[in-house]
Amino acid sequence: MASALRSNSSIQRLLQVCRRRDGLQGFRYHALVHNPVGLDTVFGNSSGVQGRSMCEMIFGLQDTLEKRRKAYGATHDGTLECMQTLAAELSIRHRFREAEPLFRRILVALKERKEEKSSNMCDSLLGLSIALLSQCKYDQAEWVRKDALEQASKILRPDSLEFANVLEMQAQVLLMHGFSTEASKLYRKILLIMKNEKGKDSPEVADILQCLADALIVGGEGLQAERVARAGMEVLRKLYGDDDKDIASMMHTIGNCMYVQGNMEGAEGMIRKALGMHVKYTGQDHSEVGMILHSLGDVVSKRGRAQEASGNYRRALEVYARTEDQERYVLERLEARVMFRLAEVLRKIGQEDEAEGLTLRAQSLARRHQLRDGDQDEGRGARR
């Protein structure tokens, strides 16, 4: 069957939204965009989507998909495009368990259409790998990532933005498996593509610089990571000035670079600035505020202030308990890491009973979410 189906814009947006990940902390999730690209194919025009609630939009897509499937079949252009849009929108809203089977159905339909070597196949493989990685299904994500890379190498130019997306997913999976050196090399390749395609002072370049800095942090290369992060900071300042949420996120990354180098005084000052600025833009109950509090707790603990560190860790747990910007299973992974840290400092100040209880809770969450030892103890990446 000759393909009349264009590359789905919602899946392309999903790839952009899910660019960011949290070093060993798992994926970084962006705020909801209330008027998504791509829904004009379902609702007639994008302006008609404005004002719809998240649930109404998803229900509308699900209803449209079922009607099209019954009327035209699973491999029809309209059915497949609606399925792609629904899978991407579910993923953007962090509903990865629901998105995964949809991406699998899309891949089956594309194979039935004899479109294994299409951009839609590559995009859908990337969407599936994002859904798998976000659910901690690392091994499956690795296989899908390899398949996407193989498909991409057949149909995409090696210096194209589309190929950069594939390389980025590869870097993310490699970093999740602890191969920080290999991930750093890929991020440098992606950086060259972004500079050529988007310009050296673009948001995309700043984004990849932050990814590269995080990979270097995980690899223990704090000095090099700080240089890269500060280069990203300069790009952001040219774009947004000195006061912006993205600036706050990069400050968090720079603070983590200083932590890795042992510069605890500098790290504390930078992370405190990041915390204040992030609260200004997102409020107290954003998941990244919890991550910054976690980092601050680590720093003050290293500086010998265990009591203060325990307060920061408790505040981080309170944020994770209140926030609604991520799915519960993602927050539980973050909570487990904070609980391990809090238990450590509680033992230092003689609160053994509470420390033991927290350790047991953290171990239970770690088993549930398949956290590895490095995941439990590290996770210093700051994300946008």
Describe this structure in words.
The chain is globular, with a radius of gyration of 21 Å. The longest helix has 21 residues, at about 330-350. Helix 15 (about 305-320) runs antiparallel to helix 16. It has about 375 residues and is mostly helical. It has 18 helices and no strands. Mean pLDDT is about 80; it is low at about 1-10, about 20-50 and about 375-384.
Largest sheet, strands/sense/barrel: none
Q: State the separation between the terminal residues, measured CA to CA.
A: 42 Å
What is the H/E order?
A: HHHHHHHHHHHHHHHHHH
Count every helix, treating DSSP H or I runs of 4 or more residues as helices: 18
Helix content: over 70%
Structural class: mainly alpha
Q: How much is the radius of gyration in Å?
A: 21 Å
| Tally of DSSP β-strands | 0
Q: Give the integer mean of the pLDDT values.
A: 81
Strand-residue proportion: under 5%
Structure summary:
The protein is mainly α. It is built from 18 helices and no strands.
Keywords:
384 residues; mainly alpha; 73% helix; disordered C terminus
Topology, element by element:
Layout: H1 9-17, H2 40-43, H3 54-72, H4 77-92, H5 96-112, H6 119-134, H7 138-155, H8 161-176, H9 180-198, H10 203-218, H11 222-240, H12 245-261, H13 264-282, H14 287-302, H15 306-322, H16 328-348, H17 352-368, H18 373-377
Helix pairs in contact: 1-4, 1-6, 3-4, 4-5, 4-6, 5-6, 6-7, 6-8, 7-8, 8-9, 9-10, 10-11, 10-12, 11-12, 12-13, 12-14, 13-14, 14-15, 14-16, 15-16, 16-17
